[in-house]
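Q: Protein A?
A:
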Amino acid sequence: MTRRLTLLGKPGCHLCHEMRTVVERVVAGMDAALVEEDVRSDPGWRHYRLEIPVLLLDGAEIARHRVHEEELRRRLAAHGVGIISPS
């Protein structure tokens, strides 16, 4: 089952771009898909507007502002996101 990573941000946000770069490197080869969303597009994300970027795993927050690759790997592993086995 592919897990969904949602990166909440907005256009022109340099921290959002940095987090996207980290997430893309980490999830390459993992059973997870990255989706970017504008934090302003959903009223349910209103409380995150001044906190971007925010990374959600299946709707639950796992990172905010900045995260390093090793820390993100550790957090994803703790939530059961693993490497895709070659067929």
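Q: Protein B?
A:
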Amino acid sequence: MNSRQKVANRIMTLCDDRRLTLNALANASAVPPSTLKSIINGDSKNPGIVTIKLLCDGLGVSLYDFFDDETFRSVEPEDE
């Protein structure tokens, strides 16, 4: 699993934990729903750290807490 997939999975896990839909997260984070869905679907090749920070704000977690998860402990080199 590459970093983009891990980020998407982490967003989905946090949404599930908080019982948030993607649209609710988009509204809470001021990230357009189309941007969020492109991250989740893997269409976004490089979601920026500012976008991830906005999503973290909407989820009520810090960037540290977002990435402080077992899924990010081993990250494989990226394929371009």
